[in-house]
Amino acid sequence: MQQPTVSRKVSQTMMQADREGAGSFLYERIYLELKAEILSGAYAEGDWFPPERALKDRFATTHLTVRNALAKLVQEGFIERHSGKGTIVIYSGDRKRATQSSLSPPRALLLVPEPDEAVSALMIRLEERLRRIQLPLSVSLHRGDPALEKSLYASAAEARILVILCPSESPGSLLDSGVELPNTILVRTGIGAAPCAQVQIDIAGGVREAVRHLIDLGHSEIALLSRYGPEGDLAREAWASELGSNGMSVDRELQATCADGVEPAWPYFPITVDAAQFGKSRDDLFEECKRRDILPRRYFYPLISSFVPYRDLPSAAPENLPVAARFGEQILCLPIFPDIAEEEIERTITVIKATYGRKI
User: Fold this and answer.
1) What is the mean pLDDT of each run of 10 residues along the chain (360 residues)?
2) What is the CATH number of domain 103-200?
3) What pTM, to 2 d.p., does this model score?
4) Distance CA 167, CA 257 (A)
């Protein structure tokens, strides 16, 4: 791929980048040089950016070093990478000037209960769009704890950060408190009165679309495994409605919740499992508990640094997050709490002993 001609203005900007990158890592110097070229107009919005191989040869370095430099350009909204196709410049000087005058938040914060698949998908879509307007995105977890939710929100509000909030459903949550929510976008399954802008997640629409897709594929029976609570109720209603509208019978035996007839209990008792000491890992115990109908949780798992928008960043490498990586591999939260029956505690202990033998 032919490289664009670098003008005198670009060269001067690159010299400035060299001065800024003095004493830094090689990937940072490459990042600054490439950023300078984009800022100077060597690449227009929509242009294809040189591939990794070309940049590797140009800077006489490794693919990993080039990849780290490109990751910073992606994070800051200069380029966008498409698997199997290439890299496109998405930066526009005109758009940057327009958004600088209209956007006051220094960054956006996605404040959510848990790092599940739905949150991961939401974060990926948000990150793709926010980087186009030079607005970095970070993520915090309130774990459904109203006190933690309020504390994280207060810190963000003080810094005038744009908060995208998936609220806690526990009593005493931020929404229940009646406080003003400036610079906030609320994301939830139902739309009700709220002191801020809000977006509704269409669970029912998604279920209907999935049912139609399975019917188009020729399936004559379609089962539903839904979540416990109001979201599960919406999913079940949509499932039954869509089956009926397509002339299919609604077989209730093909429908279940993740905890049918079971009241949820949120407390957990955390333990640390060191595979080097006990011979088997935390995940070995996790799987054995599940086989015995004991439902623990792998705490700090998965790490947010493993999600698509962050996993290619140098700061997300496990060696740069030693404590978080260790917690993500070793901590298991057992369903043991004050109101549990003593025989259930004994059963859990028996499973642990059977898994690790005499090393306990």
Assistant:
1) 43 42 69 89 88 91 87 83 82 56 70 76 76 78 86 88 87 82 81 73 82 86 77 84 88 69 64 87 90 85 79 81 86 81 87 76
2) 3.40.50.2300
3) 0.44
4) 22
